[in-house]
Each structure stands twice: as structure tokens, then as C-alpha cells.
Amino acid sequence: MDAGLKRELEAKVYAGERLTREDGIALYSSDDLTWLGRLAHHRRTEMNGDRVMFNVNRHLNLTNVCSASCAYCSFQRKPGEKDAYTMRIDEAVRKAKEMEDEQLTELHIVNGLHPTLPWRYYPKVLRELKAALPNVKLKAFTATEVQWFEKISGLGADEILDELMDAGLESLTGGGAEIFDWEIRQHIVDHACHWEDWSRIHRLAHSKGMKTPSTMLYGHIEEPRHRVDHVLRLRELQDETGGFLVFIPLRYQHDFVDSADGKIRNRIQARTTMASPAESLKTFAVSRLLFDNVPHVKCFWVMHGLSVAQLSLNFGVDDLDGSVVEYKITHDADSYGTPNTMHRDDLLHLIWDAGFRPVERNTRYEVVREYDAAPTLAERRAEPQQVWA
Ligand code: SF4
């Protein structure tokens, strides 16, 4: 990137001006990571100071049986496959109860599009989870699942959301977004929920007072211009509804050979690489700069490893998800040694070691507890340093 354009972009960021599609593409063309990080960190600090938010949650996948076969997905199984599973409601409740001692504040529930489970199962499972864990917020179902519920129930999303909210739903999850541009989407997504339905369902949820997350799956066959397009669609919807709390860039993962059946399920693996840490940091930074009206940018550390998660805090990220004791959808595709369990104390130290102030939040990003600011580097040098994988 030439020096003139760099100065122009810098001036826009420091003046708080909205960046354009062309600006976003230009930022992605820069390999000056330090510069990108500085700009994103400026924006992040203006919005969120030295805070890093986290919550104590648990991921629960009720079933891995799915009618769709998205090209990148290593989670889904077909009915009858050896490790296909579907939880009975009491089983889901028992698993959730196991976490009670850790003072979790949120259950994050996403599932395959099960071909025969009836619609009634879903509000029922929410009701029973809520009865068993009344203080835990239920963040459940992607827009794709809600559209699936429309298909299996014959109801509209309006009635479906009302019933799920009545059963205890606090928030939808942000999944199913992947990359909205059809040029890419048609090659990776195998269900019927695309931008029109995804945005319709989140818009509807926002109109009912619900706040939701938004996501993007990057690092597969898309190009930077598709990431920019994706974020600009979300930014426009956010201008309209103000209902997104956070944007989460999700790093596409390669599959590993399944020891149970020797299969690799990811069908685009042979022609893709995974985004490098530098590419991920760039994606966080450009996302923070472009998506100027979303309050938070999150790093889902399970997909990145802890060192990159720490670095991401200097590249626009102000939220680390979460205390994950069981997470299947990504972890089926990870043989790289990233832990899948972190607890409150681990997260606190991870954040302090990166030089930030931890703040525990709930699903709505309300503060549950503020912690002390990070010790200075000089103070930390006096202590043995922890190495984060
Ligand atoms: S990404 Fe979701 S909808 Fe697609 S195959 Fe996997 S579980 Fe099914």
C-alpha cells in the first residue's frame, strides 16, 4: 500500500469517519500488521478502554445428526452413523447441571438439523434447562436452526421465537452466517438459510428486544473482498436495528482423520489451508475498524490457541469466549493441541498477562464483576512468567 493511502486511512480512523468497502479491501491488502494493530487498538480502546470481557459458559450440542452436509463441517453425522447422537432431555439437563459448581452464567446451545426430532422437543428442552438452572441464561439456536424449525413445525419465525422466548431463550447464537456472498456461499453451505433468511430472523429477534451475536467463517475459499462484503451487510443491519452485541470472526478449521471410521468429513480440505495467525490478527483488526457500530469483537480462543488469543487483544478484540468445558463443533476439527477447557482463573491470568483488565459479563454484556487492572510489566517481571500454548 502506498504511503499516501496509508495516511488517508489513518486520518479517517483517527477522525472517527466510517470506512468504505474500498477502504476495507485496502486494509486487507496491507501486510503491515503493526500498523493495522495500532489502528484497530486505537478504535478498540476508544470503545472499550483496557477492558477484556469474558463469561463463564458451557457449550451444549443436543444432537450431531444433521440433514445438511456443509462442505467445511466435521461435526455433522447422518442417522445411523456410529457416533451419531441425540440427547434425551434429561440427559441434556444432567450434563448442564454438572457445571453448576463453576457458577456458569450461560449455556450456549447449537445443534445439527435433525431430520426427525419434532419441533416440540426444542422449547421443551429449554423449559427444563431453565427449571433446572434458573440463574443460567440460555443462548441457543442459530438462525439456520430457526429456519429449520419453521420447516418442521409449519409455524413462522415470529411464533417460533415467541415460544422459545417464553421457554427461556435469552439470545440466539450467531452461527450459520459463514460468508454471505453467494459466490462463495453456494460452494460451502448446504442448508437453505442464506443472507435473506439469516438477516430476517435476526431482525425479527431484535424487534422483540433480543440482542444477538454475529459471526463470519473466514480462511477457506473466500477472498478479503468477501469478508468486507460480509461485514458491511452486518453493519447495515446494525444501523437499522442496533441489535448485535458482538462480532466473532471464526477461523475455518481443517478436519483430522476420525479414529472411529477413518474419515475426513471436510470436503474442501484438499484445496484449502487454514488462516495463519497473522491473517487472523489482520481479520480481527480490519473487522474492528470496518464494523464501527458493533460494541464488541470477540476471539473464540478454542479456534486460535491461547497465544494468538492474547495477541488479538491488541488487534481490536475486547472479548474472550469463555469457560468452555465441552465444545464439539470446532473441536471435532482440531488436533493441534489447543485445550478445550478453561476456567475463570485461567482466563483472568490470560487477560492480566496480556496487560488488560478482566471484566466478567453476562449474555447481555452487562457487568457481573470487574477485576483489578493488569499489573505493570515491571511488576510481572518479578514473577515467574506463565507460558500460554
Ligand atoms: S454446519 Fe450446521 S447445518 Fe451445516 S452440516 Fe454442520 S451441523 Fe449441519
Automatic annotation (TrEMBL):
Q: Which GO BP terms apply?
A: menaquinone biosynthetic process
Q: Using the record for this protein, list the coiled-coil segments as residue ranges, or answer none.
A: none
Q: Is the Iron keyword given for this protein?
A: yes
Q: Where does [4Fe-4S] cluster bind?
A: C66, C70, C73
Molecular function GO terms recorded: 4 iron, 4 sulfur cluster binding; 7,8-didemethyl-8-hydroxy-5-deazariboflavin synthase activity; aminodeoxyfutalosine synthase activity; iron ion binding
> Any idea of its EC number?
2.5.1.120
Radical SAM core domain: residues covered: 52-279
The metabolic or biological pathway listed in the UniProt record of this protein is: Quinol/quinone metabolism; menaquinone biosynthesis
Q: Kindly state what the record says about how the cofactor is bound.
A: Binds 1 [4Fe-4S] cluster. The cluster is coordinated with 3 cysteines and an exchangeable S-adenosyl-L-methionine.
Give cofactor(s), names only.
Answer: [4Fe-4S] cluster
Q: Which Pfam families match?
A: CofH_C (PF19288), Radical_SAM (PF04055)
Reaction catalysed? 3-[(1-carboxyvinyl)-oxy]benzoate + S-adenosyl-L-methionine + H2O = 6-amino-6-deoxyfutalosine + hydrogencarbonate + L-methionine + H(+)
| Alphabetical list of HAMAP family matching this protein | MqnE
For this chain, the family text in UniProt reads: Belongs to the radical SAM superfamily. MqnE family.
Tell me what this protein is called. Aminodeoxyfutalosine synthase
Organism of derivation? Micromonospora sediminimaris
Read off the lineage from the record: Bacteria, Bacillati, Actinomycetota, Actinomycetes, Micromonosporales
